Amino acid sequence: MKAQISLELYFVFIILIVIIGWAVNLINYFHLNTPNYYTQELVALQSFANIVNENCINQVAGNYSTPCVLKDGNPIIYEISFSNGVLVMSSNDTNETVSTQSLCSINPSNVSLTCGQVVCLNGSNGNVSLILGGC
Length: 135
What we know:
- By secondary structure, the protein is an alpha+beta fold.
- 39% of the residues lie in helices and 35% in strands.
- The chain has two helices and ten strands, in the order ααββββββββββ.
- It is rod-shaped and about 85 Å long.
- The model has no long low-confidence stretch (mean pLDDT 79).
């Protein structure tokens, strides 16, 4: 009788281990497949900063379609600000802030942008004028 109880406990223990392993794998699956909005915003900001710097250095004007950061298929509205050589992107939708160095200042120093919005970046004398709607 004692051996039978031990055998039953052994099988219950194995079943519990299998269930726990399955649950851990499921949690890891959802964690790894959750979109990383921080990375998306950082890439979008770096892309924007590169265009700002290029227009400023070359002192040219050009239209630029803002990068998209999507959450659940909807575009996120983000604010870009410039201060002390740093471009900062923040979004209330993701509660995250990312920043990158910029060679040039932007005017206005604060602007809210949406996915695919056309802006004119007009560079001169170390500054870039940002005009919503294009040149």
